[in-house]
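Researcher: Re-running this chain for the archive, since the previous output was lost when a drive failed. Same request as before.
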Amino acid sequence: MRISRRVQAAILLAALVVSWAAWEWHKGTFPIGSWIARALELIRSVGPVAFFIGMAILPAVGFPLLAFTLSAGPVFAPQLGMPLVAVLVIVSLTVNVALTYWLARYAFRPMLESLIKRMGYSLPQVAADDHLSLAIIVRVTPGPPFFVQGYLLGLAKVPFWTYMIVSTLFAGAFSLAVLFFGESIVNGRGKMAFLAFSAFVALTVLVHWMRKRYTRGKKMADVV
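Model: Regenerated structure tokens:
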């Protein structure tokens, strides 16, 4: 499996930035450390119930999912324990993925269809045999925000369970890696932070490989 130079450079840059941030944090000289501490304290004051309800709802309308997964560990692990926090992250993510599908497939569909037509486009018709491949390709393609990917799949009428399984597998794996990384880096656990970051890198490489495999397979199928 070959990895493009662009992906290699991105991984190397991310590793250098993370290593620098971890070192500066450990020394207590991280430039925005006080801001992060205040932000985490503010989130903690909201409480876990409101936090995880927010995680289940807000990313469906564009709020960054990363803000929740990165802060959940350092904020609530001391109170709830990391195993429970991990479970709550996955449950909230699953609810969010389902909500995004419902909004795209039903609630917002007339408005979105009208907007797309006014822009001179039409929704593509996807054959039933291509639903799984489409779901995987959309979820592993970098660029579109997580909620936009969900809207695209909902508008394409990808079956609910196909959409849910693919979405929760990919998003859940990345969310857990980010969750453990955030908790470890804030608490100065360098080894765990390195393992979590390594898992994130491995997932990124896997996603890059799957994207090339499925897009190449789709092109070959189109030729045939």
